[in-house]
Structure formats: structure tokens, C-alpha cells
Specification:
Length: about 100
């Protein structure tokens, strides 16, 4: 069964973050390794609903789930888009040359 995590962007900082639910408490760490991993899309949809209070409070925006593979006990993105987001680095040079 595929495994998923939930991601979004922190509204204030604009940074990529991942939903962690621990004993009913939500947090948004920047590290994918700290994300809550669930089995199946139905469970991922439940996580998205659990994140709704944070969306309503404008703590995070653009919340969605995506598939991960577990590697050495840690979630790893499977798509180029999510690998780039998880790296927290620009994809093109910026600033003055």
C-alpha cells in the first residue's frame, strides 16, 4: 500500500513544511523526516482534514498529500517536484552575477 505525507507552505515564512501529528497535536516541521507517514490515500485525506484548523488560522497554505517511499526508516519523496521542495534549495541561481 502506498504511503503518504502532507505538506504545505508556512504562510509567514513561505517555507515548505510537513504535517506532524503526535498525540493529537499538530506541528509543521521543515524536515520531511519528521512528517507523519500514513498508509493509503484515505488516511492521507484524514490528515488533510486534521490540518484544516491550521489552514483556517492561515498558519499554512497550499496543503496537499504526496506519496513517499520509506528508505532506512525515513520518508523520501518519489517525484522530482517533492525532491526539490524537500531540499529547500533554489532550482536556479538568483541574485547578482
Amino acid at each position: 500500500m502506498p504511503q503518504f505525507v502532507v505538506t504545505g507552505n508556512l504562510t509567514r515564512e513561505g517555507l515548505v513544511a510537513y504535517l506532524r501529528v503526535d498525540n493529537g497535536k499538530r506541528s509543521w516541521p521543515l524536515e520531511i523526516e519528521k512528517a507523519t507517514v500514513v498508509d493509503g490515500e484515505d488516511a492521507a485525506e484524514v490528515l488533510i482534514k486534521a490540518a484544516q484548523p491550521d489552514v483556517d488560522a492561515t498558519l499554512v497554505v497550499g496543503v496537499y498529500h504526496f506519496e513517499v517511499e520509506m528508505r532506512e526508516g525515513r520518508p523520501a519523496p518519489t517525484t522530482a517536484r517533492e525532491k526539490i521542495r524537500a531540499a529547500h534549495k533554489p532550482t536556479i541561481p538568483f541574485g547578482r552575477s
